[in-house]
């Protein structure tokens, strides 16, 4: 299995990332990808981009450095009820792909029940496309309850390669989440969560984990151009 697009990356607009938009596109090209999603952190995070950044995403060319650019955001799941960043009237109009993720700054780790309630709110949020790095061991939740309901609300689940390296305990959680996605036929997206051009498209650990559990390739939306295009076309977005 391979990926053809990396839909979770950050540019230097997020202060703890280190490459420009053009450099990230170049990194995607070097990795042999056809597309890259630029998903800077929402404004609820201390170093997140201002809402104006997201409102202005549609000025980004569809093609850069020979790679298709998908205009996105990593929304912050916020305490206590699971709402996400306030973007103002036009903040989300140009966003084509939105992950929603737990981060300590915006949602201090609480109880399993509270995390589950917050994720249920995310399921109901029409702005969100995907659950971002849900394997984070700091935020345990009722995995079967949430994953079993993703298709009902049109949500996909991210398998985040970065989590396997920087979030202790995430590998076991990610594997269990993937097993549940397989059981309930919930589509997933395999991403790098890259914060620098040199790691765009690096998802070897995540792919190896999926292969270990015999995860069906047809459920990985970014494993082929056809599946990637079908996913976005189904949402009225024409990439190619």
Overall description:
The protein is about 30% helix and about 20% strand. By secondary structure, it is an alpha/beta fold. Strands 1, 2, 3, 4, 5, 6, 7 and 8 form an eight-stranded mixed sheet that branches. It has one domain: TIM Barrel, CATH 3.20.20. The model has no long low-confidence stretch (mean pLDDT about 95).
Unreliable stretches: none
**Strand-pairing-aware structural class:** alpha/beta
Number of domains: 1
Largest sheet: 8 strands, mixed
Shape from CA axes?
A: globular
Beta fraction: 15-25%
CATH class category: Alpha Beta
> Distance between the terminal alpha carbons, to the nearest Å?
22 Å
Mean pLDDT: 96
CATH architecture: Alpha-Beta Barrel
Question: Helical content, roughly?
Answer: 25-40%
Examine the coordinates and then state which fold CATH places here, giving the name of the CATH topology.
Answer: TIM Barrel
Overall number of strands: 8
Number of helical stretches of at least 4 residues: 8
CATH superfamily: Metal-dependent hydrolases
Query: Taking Cα atoms only, what radius of gyration do you get, to the nearest Å?
Result: 16 Å
